[in-house]
């Protein structure tokens, strides 16, 4: 057994853990990261990066086919092997050497193995060889272990060895057919991917697709999937699963029908990776989400921080990295006895998690949303006005595609006359999202937005159309 002491111990070396440690080191602290798998975490090897690497070829092909002049040059279909090879390049063939090199250059130590809290400000790491390392922290321990796929309690489901997002993004061979349980972001993106790869896909989504965004977004994605040949089953549940003699998975549905597929992908939610972290040392329940304040400190434990998915605030890599910047900075500030700026929009507070969380869903069509939906704004008690616009009417849309379809919705807080939500659906709309995020975070008055002139001809002209629909007040 060896023992080491640092100012900060971070459990989990994904993008979140890397950013916590990096900010703390920049603030003058020493830091070590504990990781049981690959440095770079879920996002780099089994989620954001590989999924988008595989989705992009299909999106590029669709875009080329909808532009006269380019479409004539498209003579083939997607090359499945090349799509997987592209994915392999993006994930560095699941080799984290470059990430480890970055850690070393940033002055952050790495201990490989499974880390558990073993005392106050203490983490014990068991390496793959059984060696034990005890780490003690002078100031703080940060948990950034992320989340894992939730496997619902369906009779027989575990026995059929279902895929999760890891198996889908890490597949070595494309399956002959696929059933997808769940209509959230993962389910919708994977349905888009596998349909584009020519795989017969059945999506079983009791409440439809993309429930968390505006209804028209999920409806547009559902229509596109159906038009592409996917079989969407809504309003039903899986009652049991079994692997048939021919190797296929058979799913019995609540309406008396059944679905057969070579593989089944479960995308019904996430659970925190906190079951074996020794949380009981801090008086917390193993396997639970960790409740934090806006500085990401676990409530009731002044030395423990929970950053990223584990705190259940916003399960998105970019939001986790945002939290990590605040957490790393505030850990360093508290360690030095410096001032803590934890008020609304303060340097040490993750305020945006409450009202300005942006997300792009890389389906066909793309969905980009930030802030409130109409329903959530009304539930929050805001007096809102909804501005809808057909993106095909914007001049820039016809430059992008010959048959562009899409929709944009803005949610305006009438009392303050500022934007509090925006949703875009259509090709390439992800690139529109940050302007909406800035308008919401900055609480830019609508009167000032009239002076933010969108370039012509671009899809960004929708901003002018929203303002025209709202109406410019007459000068007093």
UniProtKB/TrEMBL annotation:
Source superkingdom = Bacteria
Keywords, comma-separated and alphabetical: FAD, Flavoprotein, NAD
Q: Which cofactor does it need?
A: FAD
The FAD/NAD(P)-binding domain, residue ranges: 6-318
User: Is this entry keyworded NAD?
Assistant: yes
Can you give the residue ranges of the Pyridine nucleotide-disulphide oxidoreductase dimerisation domain? 357-463
User: InterPro entries under this entry?
Assistant: Class-I_Pyr_Nuc-Dis_Oxidored (IPR050151), FAD/NAD-bd_sf (IPR036188), FAD/NAD-binding_dom (IPR023753), FAD/NAD-linked_Rdtase_dimer_sf (IPR016156), Pyr_nuc-diS_OxRdtase (IPR001100), Pyr_nucl-diS_OxRdtase_dimer (IPR004099)
Similarity comment: family membership: Belongs to the class-I pyridine nucleotide-disulfide oxidoreductase family.
Please report the name of this protein according to its UniProt entry: NAD(P)/FAD-dependent oxidoreductase
